[in-house]
Each structure stands twice: as structure tokens, then as C-alpha cells.
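Page 42, continued from yesterday. The earlier attempt failed because a stray header line got pasted into the input along with the sequence. Redoing it now with the clean sequence only.
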Amino acid sequence: MSDTYIIEVSSQAAGIVVRDPGGFRFFAASHRFNAMDGQLFRNAREAERAAFQFAQGTQEAATAA
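This time it went through. C-alpha cells are written below.
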């Protein structure tokens, strides 16, 4: 099992997750995902889902404004 994964949303890098004693820590690769920077997830798949949901929420908020 790998210790580092790249998380992509809509074919763009959102960040990377790195294995941490408590799970996987997210590091933003784009300013768009800075709010998630440093969050800890149980696994890489959970981080990927969270990044996708975060992107959907920020996209909806930007469209509504």
C-alpha cells in the first residue's frame, strides 16, 4: 500500500494525501482547496470524496453569488 496519493477533482490536482499515524493527511495543491489543508482522513478514498464534495459546494456557492 502506498504512503502518498494524488487527489484529483475534474482532472485537476486538488492535493495530495500522505500517510500519517492517524490516517492520511491532506495537503492542498491548489488555493481552491486551502480550506481542506491539514485535514486528517481515515483513508485516501475518504479524502477524495471530501475533495469532490468540497469542490461541488464551492462551485455551487460561486454560481449562486
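Notes: The helical segments are 44-64.
Reminder to self: strip header lines before submitting.
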